[in-house]
From TrEMBL, chain A:
Keywords: ATP-binding, Cell membrane, Membrane, Nucleotide-binding, Repeat, Sugar transport, Translocase, Transport. The keyword S-adenosyl-L-methionine does not apply. GO terms for molecular function: ATP binding; ATP hydrolysis activity. This is ATP-binding cassette domain-containing protein. One of its GO terms (cellular component) is plasma membrane. It comes from the Bacteria. Its main location: membrane. It is found in: Cell membrane.
Automatic annotation (TrEMBL), chain B:
Keywords: Cell membrane, Membrane, Transmembrane, Transmembrane helix. This is ABC transporter permease. InterPro entries: ABC_transp_permease. It is found in: Cell membrane. It comes from Paracoccus aestuariivivens. The chain crosses the membrane at residues 6-28, 40-57, 63-82, 89-107, 140-158, 178-205, 211-231, 238-258, 264-282.
Length: 503, 303
């Protein structure tokens, strides 16, 4: 057996009191696609930062092609032949593709542009070198990142959750690219928490939990259930079944909503129409950046419309001109996608954060805060929604993403809304918390609340929604009944059925 | 006709202090650092240059020392705002006030003293033309400033260094992940800004009005700062704004001298109003603003 390309021996990294990586051993073989599997917070990202030289380990050694190395900077890692594609892209939006690439690859722009085209054709990564990055789709940006890595001629390519931002057809295309790279001798470290993906493309998987390796397996020999168990350390809770029920009256209606934002980088919306009934979950699918953020602001009331437009109706009342507070008064509750700064104020305690939207529920009396009621409300939310925190006085910013999300969703549900609108309910949330949040939303639906969800995770939408509409370039597809729809159909709407696959 | 000749002949020289300071600030801001201390750095440059020229009579030495003095003051600002991560606005204001104080202190015994200016160099052939001839007859520093404008435009647009500065200004964290020394680049940009502000002050005190008076910079550093923002961080527009301001300043002087029957205070406001209006209108294109805007400007970078 040939020597491994990369071995890690006892790698340890501690941040303050958090031991992000504890004695990690890992071997990546030449020409393999190796998965690093784990929940959020399991230590995957830290491990990748250690390998790519962004952080240096407190203990342990890195052996690269048989020799111990100290990777003290990304530049050093690149020189050794390690490339990385980040989850949140490290591209510069105001620069062109070729300018971005010339930041780490020496050479004249004309030559670089020619090489970008060449690599694009060879690996199915076509992109226009002179285009500005801000005008590119997410899939195209990812291609730019991969090309940028490939131009440094790496032996090992690290991809951090590469599929989390892609529509299904682009995922297929990415996998073809990765297979082709492996066949030419490039090893790939593939970070993910999506089990089916790992089973379909990886030949080795290392599983992390709480900063430690808990398994080292061939993912093709295990089913998704096994993998999940290794990842979270216990059995997955079963999804909550939705009770068959007739949808009730229309709670939220958008009628031909047109919107042109002032911000030139924002997406315009055109002729958005949807109807959300009591006792159903409607999901809005789509690749991010297709108008979800703009739509969410219009529905929540952060962006208002002229009263005459009459495009947005809640509980039969025209609300387009009303602000967020007035809409909440009608029984609307909203969980925005950014937890820190929009869903919660990071510097404030959980108790004060509950006050932000629950102030109408007796928490404020005669203009003064009733601290004991505030504490009761917060304690109840923490208990009922299984928020892991020292208590109501904990700072919101100190909670992990999953716990804070459970708190915010819980707070909004406790307002007993008629409409609950959740944008990206489980983004960056671990599997356990994500399942809990989804069960809550199904419960709410079963109780007759109208639930609207924006999500990029198609599996999630299929699990809990009654109907799905797909948003693409600011337009909404017709409503699709989940029971009669296949994932590929949604995927086709996500990329625009009339265009070639893979955009 | 006389007024036009007068404006054409003088506008480049009038624009030069603004232009030099604004070009330096442009580089600092492109790298993501808002240096509000420009006024003080100009004041220090002005006094150092004046003392040097008064003492030794050599302008080149005066400019050199003035540039170094501006850079030294900007080094203090960089240390506060980049290394110690102080708020850029507060640190910039403090350093600016310090600079004005130092300038008053050093210049205390030179009030109303004068030095000789610089001779004008004429482009052969063009300099003798009627009306526009004055435009081609300028002192050495003006020609250097024009060259610097072109060089900075080309560097930001075409060179690797310019690319790296823009990248650091847009997203310092990403630039660091690519292995660029963000801190060092920001230091360099701020020092360049201080150097240029020192030159600008030197020009104001030893060439444009070669006479010492306390507070002689008189807000020109603030105008330079405003020019950078109104010019949406584009070199060509910084140049245009500076020349426009210089031209309108001279035009209103010509108007006063020519006996135009308007309140002189109102006329004195004119350069400010016209520059704000014109640059305000051309910077109203939000797409351009977003593409050229510096995303990390004024934000403390913590690696």
């Amino acid at each position: 057996m040939p020597a491994p390309l990369l071995s890690l021996r006892g790698l340890t990294k501690t941040y303050g009191t958090v031991r992000a990586n504890r004695g990690i051993d890992l071997e990546v073989a030449q020409g393999s696609i190796h998965a690093i599997l784990g929940e959020n917070g399991a230590g995957k990202s830290t491990l990748m930062k250690l390998i790519y030289g962004v952080e240096t380990p407190d203990a342990g050694e890195v052996i690269w092609q048989g020799n111990p190395v100290r990777l003290t900077s990304p530049a050093e890692a690149r020189r050794q032949g390690i490339g990385m594609v980040f989850q949140h892209f490290s591209l510069f939006e105001t620069l062109t593709v070729v300018e971005n690439i010339s930041l780490i690859v020496p050479g004249r722009k004309a030559e670089l542009a020619a090489r970008i085209r060449e690599l694009g054709q060879e690996y199915g990564l076509e992109v226009e070198p002179r285009a500005h990055v801000h005008s590119l789709s997410v899939g195209e940006r990812q291609r730019v990142e991969i090309i940028r890595c490939l131009m440094t001629d790496p032996r090992l390519l690290i991809l951090d959750e590469p599929t989390s931002v892609l529509p299904p057809q682009s995922v297929t295309r990415l996998f073809q690219t990765l297979t082709r790279l492996r066949d030419r001798g490039v090893s790939i470290l593939f970070i993910s928490h999506k089990l089916e993906e790992i089973r379909s493309i990886c030949d080795r998987a290392t599983i992390l939990r709480d900063g430690q390796v808990t398994g080292n397996i061939d993912p093709r020999e295990h089913d998704a259930h096994d993998l999940a168990k290794m990842m979270i350390g216990r059995d997955m809770p079963a999804p909550r079944p939705a009770i068959a029920r007739e949808p009730g009256e229309i709670r939220l209606e958008l009628a031909g909503l047109d919107y042109r934002p002032d911000d030139p980088f924002a997406q315009s919306l055109s002729k958005i129409s949807l109807r959300l009934h009591a006792g159903e979950i409607l999901g809005i699918a789509g690749v991010s950046g297709n108008g979800q953020a703009e739509l969410a602001r219009l529905i929540s009331g952060e962006t208002t419309r002229p009263a005459a437009a009459d495009e947005i109706r809640m509980m039969g009342k025209s609300v387009g001109h009303l602000g967020a507070a007035a809409r909440r008064k009608l029984g609307f509750a909203f969980v925005p996608e950014e937890r820190l700064g929009r869903g919660a104020v990071p510097e404030m305690s959980l108790a004060d954060n509950s006050l932000l939207t629950a102030h109408r529920f007796g928490l404020v009396q005669r203009g003064l805060i009733n601290r004991s009621r505030e504490a009761d409300f917060t304690a109840r939310c923490i208990k009922d929604y299984d928020v892991r925190t020292p208590g109501p006085q904990a700072e919101a910013g100190a909670l992990s993403g999953g716990n804070l999300q459970k708190f915010i969703v819980g707070r909004e549900i406790m307002l007993a809304p008629k409409i609950l609108f959740v944008s990206q309910p489980t983004w960056g949330v671990d599997i356990g918390a994500a399942t809990a949040i989804r069960r809550r939303m199904v419960d709410l639906r079963n109780d007759g609340v109208a639930v609207l969800i924006i999500s990029e995770e198609i599996e999630e939408l299929f699990e809990i929604c009654d109907r799905i509409q797909v948003i693409r370039e600011g337009r909404l597809s017709p409503s699709l009944n989940v029971a009669e729809t296949r994932v590929e159909d949604i995927g086709r709407y996500m990329i625009g059925a009339e265009e070639r696959a893979g955009i | 006709m006389n007024a036009i000749t007068f404006v054409l002949a003088g506008m480049l020289a009038a624009a030069t202090p603004f232009l030099l300071a604004a070009l330096g600030e442009l580089i600092a801001e492109r790298a993501g650092v808002l240096n509000l201390g420009i006024e003080g750095m100009m004041a220090v440059g002005a006094v150092i240059a004046f003392l040097t020229v008064h003492q030794f009579g050599t302008h080149s030495l005066g400019f050199l020392l003035a540039g170094l003095a501006g850079a030294a003051l900007s080094l203090v600002f960089a240390w506060l705002s980049i290394s110690l991560r102080a708020n850029q606005v507060a640190a910039g204001l403090a350093i600016g006030i310090l600079g004005q104080g130092l300038s008053a202190l050093f210049g205390k015994n030179y009030e109303s003293k004068t030095v000789s200016g610089l001779p004008k160099l004429s482009v052969p052939g063009l300099g003798e033309l009627p009306v526009v001839g004055g435009l081609f007859t300028q002192d050495f520093v003006v020609w250097i400033a024009l060259l610097a404008t072109f060089a900075i435009w080309a560097a930001l647009r075409f060179s690797k260094m310019g690319l790296v500065i823009r990248a650091v200004g847009e997203n310092p964290a990403a630039a660091r992940s690519l292995g660029y020394p963000v801190i060092a680049i920001r230091y360099g940009a701020v020092l360049f800004g201080g150097l240029m502000a020192g030159f600008a002050g030197a020009y104001a005190s030893t060439v444009y009005t070669p006479l010492w008076a306390d507070g002689m910079i008189a807000g020109r550093g603030w105008i330079a700062l405003a020019l950078v923002v109104f010019a949406t961080w584009m070199t060509g527009r910084v140049f245009f704004g500076a020349v426009l301001f210089g031209a309108v300043s001279l035009a209103q002087l010509a108007a006063q001298a020519g006996g135009v029957n308007l309140n002189s205070q109102l006329l004195a406001c004119l350069p400010y109003l016209v520059t704000i209006a014109v640059l305000g209108i051309i910077s109203s294109n939000r797409r351009l603003l977003k593409v050229n805007g510096v995303a990390s400007l004024g934000k403390t970078y913590i690696p």
